[in-house]
Design a protein that fits this description.
Glycerol uptake facilitator protein, 8 helices, globular
């Protein structure tokens, strides 16, 4: 798969992910009648289901990163060139804003408008560190040992993390940036974005360090598939 097609896959996949996250948040809030738990449940179920579908759809095209933290970890493992990684970052961020705009359009909201939803403080930052570390742990480990189950494992983890973290598990730099431009149930104030991004980058870096050590005796395999370097045969994977 050539790079323009991979970038298109990342753009479209990330756009649909944001459309799911923001659109289901708006729908959930409107239908819940003020019950935040019900709104969050609707948002959670839609996001988990959407992730499975999107990873299965775009995985063979781009690896279905949809997340700069995932691309960063793949680059740190040496399975995607840094030049290509920066292209992925750009496609993911552009796709995230396109998806936010699409969701707003479906619900007759302004294309972009700064969120007023406060999400800040040590507990929220720690939640984002934990959420991102866990997400990378699931991706790195499952794709080395059970690659066909990775889409389901990722979706299951995010579904759970919506509820066990106080931040509702953004765990994605592109998602965080785009949700700052959405004054909806899924939003985050622009001034709170930097704390989330630092926590997410820290969680991703920690996961790479830990899982490089945990898999130190295994043959190196790209955890995300369909990348720039030659891949070993599946039977070679421990």
């Amino acid at each position: 798969m050539n790079m323009p097609r991979k970038l298109a896959g990342e753009f479209l996949g990330t756009a649909f992910l944001l459309a799911v996250v923001i659109g289901s948040g708006i729908m959930g809030e409107r239908l819940a009648g003020g019950n935040v738990a019900i709104a969050l449940l609707g948002n959670t179920l839609a996001t988990g289901a959407g992730l499975v579908a999107l990873i299965l759809t775009f995985g063979p095209i781009s690896g279905a990163h949809f997340n700069p933290a995932v691309t960063l970890s793949d680059a740190l493992f040496g399975h995607i060139h840094w030049r290509h990684a920066t292209m992925y970052f750009a496609a993911q961020i552009a796709g995230a804003f396109a998806g936010a705009a699409a969701a707003h359009g479906m619900f007759q909201e302004a294309v972009f408008f700064a969120s007023q939803h406060a999400r800040t403080g040590p507990s929220q930052w720690w939640s984002e560190f934990v959420a991102t570390f866990g997400l990378l742990a699931v991706i790195i480990s499952c794709s080395r040992t059970r690659p066909t189950s990775t889409p389901f494992a990722v979706a299951a983890y995010i579904t759970a993390a919506y509820w066990f973290t106080s931040s509702t598990s953004f765990a994605n730099l592109a998602v965080t940036l785009a949700r700052a431009a959405s004054d909806t149930f899924a939003g985050i104030r622009p001034q709170d974005v930097s704390g989330f991004i630092v926590a997410q980058l820290s969680g991703a870096a920690a996961a790479v360090v830990v899982f490089k050590w945990l898999f130190a005796t295994s043959k190196e395999v790209s955890p995300y598939g369909n990348q720039d370097l030659p891949q070993p045969r599946l039977r070679d994977v421990p």
